[in-house]
Amino acid sequence: MKNIKIFTLIFALYNFGCSNLLAEENLSNKIYKNLRCLVCQGQSIADSNSDFAQTIKSVVNDKLKEGMNEEEIYNFLAEKYGDWILYNPPLKNESYLLWTLPYVFFILGAVFLFFLLKKTLKHKRY
Amino acid sequence: MLSEIGTLFVLISTLLSFFLIFFSTKEIREKSVYPSKKIRNFSLLQFIFTNLSFIVLLVGYIASDFSLVNVYENSHTTKPLFYKISGVWGNHEGSLLLWINILVLFSFLFLIKNHTIDKKFQLLTLIFQNMLIIGFFIFLITISNPFSKIFPVPQEGLGLNPILQDPALAIHPPLLYLGFVGSSIYFSLALASLICKFDGKNFANVTKPWILFSWFFQTLGILVGSIWAYYELGWGGYWFWDPVENSSLIPWFLMTALLHSILVLEKRGSLYLWVITLSILTFTMSVTGTFLVRSGILNSVHTFANDPSRGLYLLIFLSIMIFSSLYVFYKFAPKEKVEFKPFSKEFFILINNWFMIFFLITVLIGTIYPIFLEIIANEKISVGPPYYNTILAPFVIPLLFLMSYGPQANWLVSKPAEIKKLVTVLFLSVCLIIIFIYFTNQKNILINLILISSIYLIFQTFLDLLKNLGKKNFSFYSSIFSHLGFGLLIFFISLNSIFSIEHDFNIKIGEKRKLGNLEITLQDLKIYPEKNYKKFVGNLMVFYNKNNSIEFLNPEIRIYNQPKTITYEASIKSNVLSDTYVTMSNISKSDFYNIKFQKKPFMNLIWFSTILIAFGGFIRILERRTK
Amino acid sequence: MKKTTLGITVVVVSFIILVFYYGLNTEKIYDTEDLVGKPIPKIDLKLLNESKNFNTEELSKNNFTLINFFASWCGPCRKEHKHLINLSKNKNIKIFGINLKDEKSQANKFLNKLGNPYYLIASDHDGKKAVHFGVFGIPETILIDNDLNIIKKYIGPIDDLDVKKILKLVGK
Description:
Chain A is mainly α. Chain A has 5 helices and no strands. Chain C has about 170 residues and is of the alpha/beta class. At the A-B interface, helix 1, helix 2, helix 3 and helix 5 of A face helix 13, helix 14, helix 15, strand 1 and strand 10 of B.
């Protein structure tokens, strides 16, 4: 019974995978998603239908054709419009805390749990 | 007329809240064992009048009474009735009235359900809850009055944003409010419990049903919000890590942590202070979220019209709440000894809490960091999906593995479960994913690990379910279903992100575009006038080379006249395995139309998994009722 | 609860509330102030009414150039137009127009009606050149020196005060 279930699952996944794959990592779409539409209220260039978004999409495509890679395009646009246009905050002095604080808290939690455990184990000895 | 009646009802309810606080304070000192009938009557009256004020506003909308500013600004005579009704809470003032209704509802239900518990504890809870209620009533009456008048009375309203005219959005706020506004009751319970020096286990018994109830609705509320975003907003996504979405997710993490910890408190009597802290934090974070969303301090696609004066009031209210809670906590919190053994159930629940707190801190930091940076360093940055995905995704893997193990652990005793069984399932999961990787060439290690861990959780919970069919009690099934749901959710979200296809291109009417193994033709564009808008419907034909099938999709561009807005309606063809999702917009000053064509796999299964998670909670609520 | 924990919590919470309070009161409109001090890009532009090509490098011939992005369909552009006419009378500064997402005939009609302050006009029909200048709406105006460095960026129509400051900067 279990075998049949596993087999059907594999079969479904296989069909699915083949039918959709060689999904070219659509690079331009990936870039659109990472850019903020500056004249919209909280939408990416990919999601927005505004004039500004259409123009930026066009510029991104041009730059890709010119041979710029993803990072260069982000740098180009951030240079013109500031880091605000990028949804992935670049790791700079200003965003250092942003990227490290969550991990700091995670480690703090671990340390706290560790001490809690230690206290219990200490008690056990007596 | 309506304006005066509505305001009158609001004032009466506020007055009743004052009475409740006054008489409760008096009765605490008295010798009675139970609260007097007077308290119950006042609470009932308060409940009635608050509901009546809501009904008055409802009538205003249904009758299109534009003498009320709120109705004028947010409604229109040609709105369909269903959306006239949901328009009541689709704006700041109306939704605030709904907030208050929920606060009062919980106050009243608490009194009814828990009228036999310790009197001082009961009354103190009522006092704190009514302080919250009064705080919000004052907010409503002074700067957010839905009953303010306008003269002369306009002939027609300004209309409601067409994006908000959607059934999912209609029930989204009420569901969500039953969630995070409902958390107010255990905020009050926690403070009352500290002052009364109430016993941990008793506190757990009283509070647990409220936590389950609010968690259940919060889960559904978030689900419905995502469904609305998917169907209405037209970008094919369902979660954007937008500040408003994050504001509903943060309380959810706290509630989840809380509903796990309260089990420890209930069974073992320990973690009392931690549970109190979480109870206070949940509602605090809910109000913080409301502040962030309504004050205008953040930029978001969801925000209500912004007003700094609202922000100021909420900030002051929030400060009072936080500092008073800190004071009560500092003054009344008992000393507590925490002990637990590794590999015991308590240990796993603490680990769950550790992860939940980590997730919520990440989301909180991501949401408010831009504000801090702007104020302190005068720099503007955006924190979007890439940040949250990068930080959170790796931690989902250990969480999923631990979730498979945790429910099997026993209380107190630490006994590593049968290793052999675990390893077999693990081996199976890894094999399956290796086959998957082979066929799909999926190279991303992180995603593969997430797939392995989610399949592992799914298999493990399934096995547990099959092994124990009919043998166990409600709480066993509730955790099985919820954990299974969570595993499925992560699994389908991952598959969806791997296999989603997006094509964004410009095309003229009559043109055909070849993309991979698809051929898309924009056959024509037809114009139809509707009740309150004009729609341009594109007829798109999609030909799939792989299996020679054809699909027709009809994305729309809608031009509304009151207020003048353009919306883009996605055309979605949905089935179990995959959705085809298309939006179309025109490019100004050209014959071209921009088409966004997407294939979104497993969307319905993502919704199903979330419902399954909520269902687990529902089962546990049922269990309590049958007791 | 220990006194130190309380102390730390109070300090942290107060700090957060204070930041939120300031956040409420500052209305920071998004601008591209970062660009001040940097040079404009050296790119080719098509001229509106002539067929020859133009490169922005040629703007270094002027002591100061005011690059103004405008369009005939833009309301606020009409408002600021008289200020541009005013500025064009000053010998130290030349006004360079870039017509954005517009039709040539409409642009010329606009200038015939309201006056032409521009010594040269370029045409950016699809708006892509504007992106190179960090422009995201109109009107936007950029003041540069003869090294093509950006001295000031104006988002939205310029007013009396801006004109006064510009005249002071370029010297009467």
